[in-house]
Queue: 4 jobs
Job 1
Amino acid sequence: MSKQTSPKENKLVLVGAHVSIAGGIHNAIERGTEANCNAIQIFTKSNRQWKAKPLTNDDIQQYKTARNQSPIKVIIAHASYLINIGSPKQETAQRSYEALKVELERCNQLELAALVLHPGSHTQSDTQQALKRIGSYLNKLFEQVNGKCLILLENMAGQGSSIGRTFEELASIIDVVSDKKQIGICFDTCHAFAGGYKFDTKESYQAMWSHFDKTIGLNYLKAMHINDSKKLFDSRVDRHEHIGQGEMKLKAFDLIMNDERFKDVPKILETPKDHIPGDDIKNIAILKGLID
Ligand SMILES: [Zn+2]
Ligand SMILES: [Zn+2]
């Protein structure tokens, strides 16, 4: 890793957190700014409900004004946890598809860079079929929605029958997608660790990313979720923890923060929020402190 880079304060790293939109989407910008973020993630609607009230022109204008006056450079969204376009149940898959379409349209209205999606769950049906279903729904989505917002498939911890724990599964979804420019990956550190990927030594870190590059391709990596893990390595249980307080070694975050290949990849915390914005401020400071 190069040591001859500019001093820390001059180096732009895209680091931030998931922030709430309570009271209106424009409020997320203020919350992110208060937490020292220059990149944020939001839900564009309630993440535990199917329904969304359409965005009004006022909502959009207020949001854009706030954004333009803020130091925030990248804004991405996370799709609702209810969505499962991999479901073998036609009704669930179709309902999920419609909801995802509305979310992608909202993201385009808000000029967001990307929408992070949990690939889905096969609910004890055939995994290969589920991977194909997800890919086909994404093809339909990209045909029906015009806009620049990408869909980023997130790697999962592998709880229950969730899809997307392995790079191979993510790659087989991408294989089905015709328009590769619309699709990417969001790498969640907690999910990878709990899902059985080691990357906390120089050697394991290099090995994991070369595996990622071979199976998926590093060019697909468009965002990262930076979370420590409450649960053990390979536990397949998804519980996020503050950076440095979980089961992961700080070295894993150190390697990511100093990896020149990921300089332009926004790094978003999804760590607990007992104190707002204090917790995010602390975690962001830890991450920035790791930069050589
Ligand atoms: Zn997620
Ligand atoms: Zn995540």
Job 2
Amino acid sequence: MTAHQSTFFDGGQRLQMTESIEMTIQSLQAYGPDHPHWGIAWSGGKDSSATLTMICWLIDTGKIKRPETLTVFYADTRQELPPLAIAAEQIMDELRERGIRIEVVTASMDKRFMVYILGRGVPPPNNNTLRWCTRQIKIDPMEQALRDRVDQLNGQILMITGVRQGESAIRDRRIEMSCSKDGAECGQGWYQQVLPNAKGLRGRLATLAPLLHWRVCHVWEWLKHWAPQAEFGDWSTAIIADAYGGDEAEEINARTGCIGCPLAAEDNALDTILTNPQWAYLAPLKGIKPLWRELREPKHRIKKAGLERLKDGSIAKNPQRMGPLTLEARAMGLDRILGIQTACNEAADEQRRPRISLINAEEESRIRALIAAGTWPDGWEGDEPAADTVMPIVYQNGAVQPLLFSAEDAA
Ligand code: SF4
């Protein structure tokens, strides 16, 4: 009997899976034929990988009509967990064998996560509303790739995303953009909601989330047991489910995102990967998340000395706000990341396991050049005081609360 009859997945659940696939087919049959050109926004994470492989299987088996063109946009952030990056490479080979067009979408050098933080000095993101990273390393490059593609095709694209919110979302008719909700895959909600309104894409892009109603256990089941079988396409997706421990943890809501994402409460995915002896050599990656936290501390940053006038002459909301990383902090961060990379790769060589790339030679040299040139983010000169300097407090109305005692008093 087939391998997809796992212990937790039989009877009613199997029926639900079949129903879920049926709903996916119906949504693609309803919306697909109106669009000759399809794109798939794929990050290598669990939801978008399930979406990608499911759609290819449905097309290959004639369950849905093949579009005139299909382009897979692989969002390569350079921040993916190594097992997922490796799986993505294998899946790309499998897509190429089928003659499917793939575009690898990566942010320009200065906008990449590591270069932006360690070269330009922008602090690591720390909350969901103000995070710059998703837009910069996922959305903006995807927007550009799509603009280029719709121009080439001179038509409209149906962009298929891996947004998956389960049954509650169907009830709510609401798609959360936050990647911290319900184990969603970072970026997919943004692709769904932000891209259709992006400059140059309005009216030229429709989106569809054909796995919207899937439960997370169905995603694991598909990736681990169905998709790897010849009858479902022979895909290299099991490694993705294994990376999250999805097979054992039926309802685990593992969030998919960057290595050491500063916004995730825990490094759950990385922790699971490290319990697998094959990937245990990646343990030094555990040092990345604490580094981002440390770099946000005042001792590594500069701050505005007092009131800040904006370009339009108005006063900025938060006087004495903390800003970019000092040049020393950036150099320290670069050393730490390179040290982590070296430690992983030495262990990889010893154990004949795949090497990893956190910062490649080109990125390292760009980071060093930006630090050497004393580059600061817009609105900063670098001559501002260190953020841990004790100073009189300035309020937005200009009032100043002096220090209770001065340095001389203390002396
Ligand atoms: S996973 Fe985290 S670090 Fe990566 S883009 Fe999303 S929020 Fe930013």
Job 3
Amino acid sequence: MRVLVAGATGVVGRPLVEALRARDHQVSALVREASRDRAPAADTIVIADALDRQALLSTVAEARPEVVVHQMTALRLLRDDPAEAFELTRRLRTEGTANLIAAARAAGARRLVAQSIAFAAAPVGGPVLDEDAPLYVDAPDPGWAATVRAVAELERLVLSSPDLAGMVLRYGMLYGADTGYARTGGTGQAVLAGRLPLPEGGAGITSFLHVEDAVGAAVAAVESDATGVFHIADDEPAPAAQWLPYYASALGGPPPRTIPAALAPRLLGWYTAHQLTAARGAANHRARTALGWEPVRSSWRAELGEE
Ligand SMILES: NC(=O)c1ccc[n+]([C@@H]2O[C@H](COP(=O)([O-])OP(=O)(O)OC[C@H]3O[C@@H](n4cnc5c(N)ncnc54)[C@H](OP(=O)(O)O)[C@@H]3O)[C@@H](O)[C@H]2O)c1
């Protein structure tokens, strides 16, 4: 199949291009001009910024993809400029997705697969929720509420576009090479420096996903006819009280100290406190049954903190 990967230089996008080519798909990698020297090996490199609608329309038309994959975020900027990372990612999820859909439709594509996140559910019910659980669009933190609304808009756009079969892959918390949970990543460095304490109880649930399993799910999604929203996460959603001490030990860092839960938002920021105290996990049953995907790493215990 002819497949266009938007976000082809990314943590998921780069190995995805390689995996699709290994399965004999003809892959066009969409890359920004400034990132041209980091383009992956692909059948075609096409250059455009997804926030430039006209450029994207003509570039995607050149590639004539049957399937378009959206793996774009600006989260790589998180460590240097979190506000810019979230604002650009919000725009990529809204304007960028709308532009990519317009370009995919104009180019005659029949299918769109887009990256979303499995940790945007409202903390109601659970502790592990399926895809029908409401998203936390009214989170008390304005920044997280804006992020979740952008996620909801991305999903709405992908699933409501006429002529395009849409699939949303809600990835669990990515770990593995080049992710935030790698030794050199933002979370890895915070844990190694003893800067990620455990709020008492540590009851927030995280569903992890190895980056290679994210790639495997994206390949399955490209080749599938299924549509809709899918949690792509491992089989062991875990409370922070379990995974954080394990992760610190695997990294060779100090055990996390315990802090009173009430102080967590002030000491860690709203989002991290939420993740560690109240977040719900993501059930992967639908992906197993309707997509025929299952994680190779069924538990984060095997490799979290190993890279
Ligand atoms: N589920 C999760 O846990 C999750 C989800 C997403 C991200 N993350 C974390 O965030 C980090 C980044 O992962 P990621 O794969 O989402 O992001 P990434 O590795 O930064 O890849 C994002 C891709 O989007 C592209 N892009 C950005 N802005 C663009 C634009 N305006 N037009 C076209 N392409 C654009 C980037 O291209 P350039 O090379 O040109 O910038 C890059 O190819 C990782 O550390 C990961 O752990 C986690």
Job 4
Amino acid sequence: MGGSIRLVKVLGIDIRIHYSWLLIFGVVSYWVYTDFRAAEYSQELSALLAVGASAALFLCILAHELAHSVVAVRSGIPVRSITLFVLGGVASISREAERPGTEVLMALAGPACSLAIGLACGAAWFATGGNDGEVSAYRDLLFWVASLNVMLGGFNLLPGFPMDGGRVLRAAIWRITGDYRRATRIASVVGQALGWLIAGAGAGVVIAYLFIGSGPLDAYNGLWFILMGLYLSSIASSSYRQVVLREAMRGITAASAMASDFMTVPPGMSLLQIVRDYVEPNRYRSFVVATDGRFQGVVNVENIRRVPDSRWGVTTAGSVMTPAGSVVTATPEDDGLGLAAKMDQFRLDGIPVVREGTVVGVVTRGSLARAVQMRARSEE
Ligand SMILES: [Zn+2]
């Protein structure tokens, strides 16, 4: 996720916060502060509790995501980072579970962790006197953290993909039908329906508030429900599209995704000629260097720019190219998922496809995207 900063590393996982999180920190602090002020606590104590509550929210969401991550890592699925943003947390789990059982364990770990924290805090609240009518700010905070975690756990168990409950539903359908894609589609349709239901309920609350002047909840809660519901239905459909794309990528090969109209230049060609004949008229940015079809290396606009233009006439492609041994290449059989991963890992726009020392094509981000789209469409 862009626009985030790294805080710490826990169990080898980067913990990051997105800037939108600061908004939540502000809103929650303000909200808790006014609540505690209304309960007649002093300004200082209310401020302290407000910051405490925001910090607790942060730690509780983090604990929830860490629980998912620990099970993922234990199941051999690496987790790169956890990012907290305005609507919760996301763990960047490198791939999906291979078996329904693993998916269920991974999905349930988060809500189980939240409910456990909620129960523990609730028990502590009860043990320290609970609701005995005596005023205690710290007990109020304990109660706040307990209900927060119960809500966090409960909400995530809603059976719509990609929420945790939806993942459990998907795993169950996947187990029964053996069809991963169909299971994902059904669970994501349930997710979209749930999102619309929640948004509709929120709209009902707002309308009741506007026309009758009262309702079971206030208008702000209604607005929050609408936002949450719309967000849920949009991630449900986009997560499904992502799954379809990944499946489609797995099903295509470099041979079917490559463009074969790449430009080849001999190693002896001068940079001046490359710029004058290819870069300027056709805006090509990258060239395969080959002698009699044999792959020698790659020269691109960045290589050329490093040479002062007064020397372009006497400098050859072969002397500035990245030699074949250092170029990231693919074989015609490599699958689309692997190609995309390579492009991301090495920040490449294109990968030459080499068969027995000869470049037979180049896979670019554009050609890969077109092949994947065609495949995804033909499967729909
Ligand atoms: Zn979760």
